[in-house]
Amino acid sequence: MSQVGFIGLGTMGAPMLRNLAGSGAGTIVFDLDAACVRDLAAETGAAPARAASDFAGAEAVVTMLPTSDAVAEALFDWDGGIARHLPAGSVVIDMSSSDPTQTVRLGERLREHGVDLVDAPVSGAVAKATDATLSIMMGADSEAAAERATPIVRTMSAVVFRTGKLGTGHAMKALNNFVAGASTTAACEALIAGERFGLAPETMVQILNASTGQSFVTSNVLGEHVVNGRFASGFGLALYAKDVRIARSLTQAIAHPAPVCEAVSGALDDALDELGNVDHTRAFEYWKDQEA
One GO MF term, please (predicted)? Predict the structure, then answer.
């Protein structure tokens, strides 16, 4: 595509934009942080957007924002809304970790402007965003829209999974992060219990990673960021808690009993209430301070 808009230049968005711009696509960028827009535009050759009308020539717009509400605000509220300037037949690719029920409603609103919506959230954290090896989960009601979106998201990814109808990508992302959150809370709980009984945390991590308790969390987070005290995974506790909360809302919407999801969501929310938006690995410190 000749022109692709990109909205949201944060921790994940910035490296994703670099890979998109490096593919040769013309890019138009916007973020509420004007300095970030200026610096990344200069670095990548992107055109900085100063008004919603600057996106009028975009055949696609990528959003990488914290919440569904932020996506809707950019598309419909900021400077009168970007959506009304997009040409008919263009596609919005929401790569944020959004609420799937809100995604469906957003798709309906965009269709009124002749614009398709594809949800394509990512997994893989900053390292994979940087080297363009993110896993992407893509939902869409229009196969033609999914086909238009695929070459764009492939500039940032190692694999694209087609998940089904609009909203299923965001549902899968939330459920994935619930599973990761369950692993995080369980691993931290085990580490705390073992240490109180006399086990060395380093030994526990080694054994977990050589045994059936092994997971992405034990291999990539527990030793590096918790046991070593770095607490610098790059993923905020507020976003983690939000994603698991979305998964909990999804199970409630379909009336599916999910006691583990409820417990994990509650544990993350409790840590967030006490610590604020710190690196998510610092939840370990909060849980460790809890008395029986």
Answer: NADP binding
> Residue 19, Cβ neighbours under 10 Å: how many?
19
Of 107, 139, 166, which closes a domain?
166
Percent of the chain with pLDDT over 90: 95
Query: Do residues 65 and 238 lie in contact, with contact meaning Cβ atoms separated by under 8 Å?
Result: no
Fill in the amino acid letter for 192: I
Listing DSSP states for 183-250 in one string gives HHHHHHHHHHHHHHHT--HHHHHHHHHTSTT--HHIIIIIIIIIITS----S-BHHHHHHHHHHHHHH
- Same domain? 161 vs 182: no
Tell me what pLDDT residue 234 has: 87
60-63 and 91-94 as β-strands: parallel, antiparallel, unpaired? parallel
Q: Domain range for residue 182?
A: 174-288
Last residue of a domain, one of 166, 189, 221: 166
What pLDDT, on a 0 to 100 scale, did the predictor assign at position 125? 84
pLDDT digits (tens, 9 = 90+) for 141-161: 999 999 999 999 999 998 999
Helix (H, G, I), strand (E, B), or coil: what is residue 262?
A: helix
Positions annotated as catalytic residues are 173
- Return the residue matching tokens 């993110």: 134
